[in-house]
User: What shape does this take?
Amino acid sequence: MVAIVLSISWIIAAMKFGDRDWKKYYPSMLFAALGNALYEILCYKYQLWSMEPNGVVYSIIPMLLLILVGMPLSTWVFLSKYPYELSIYKKGIYVSFFVTVFIVLEYISIKFGAISYHNGWNLGWSLFFVIVMFLVIRLHFTRPILALLISIPFSFLLCMIFEVTLEKMK
Assistant: This one.
């Protein structure tokens, strides 16, 4: 149920705050969704965090809502209102706002049983991940190849830290 409420919230936020010229954000929206989808596919049998059914019949529904609604629309809203012309301080405040929103939503999701942690993952790791995620999404908007080049070693680093090996992947 939490995933449905959050998806509806992101739809409303996108309609209210999303730049009507959404097509310019589309590659970064796909980048964010693909990153989440790759995690779900590769770590299917050795998850660090998982979306729980939480009131819906099939456990794949919350996962698909995050991949197809949550990640693309939150990326669209994030990039639409990003303070491109302002100081680094204002940009830091803006990114911090989105990081805080994501962490609060994740905390609520944990408390309502919509997300569970496994294999050493916790809210602190999520905070670190979300900070990097928003910085890389922002970078992807203007320098997609560089964002990809940063994402690959970051993903390998997380795999090493959490011992996500090929044997543990699907």
About this structure: Residues 82 and 144 are 17 Å apart (CA to CA). The mean pLDDT is 95.
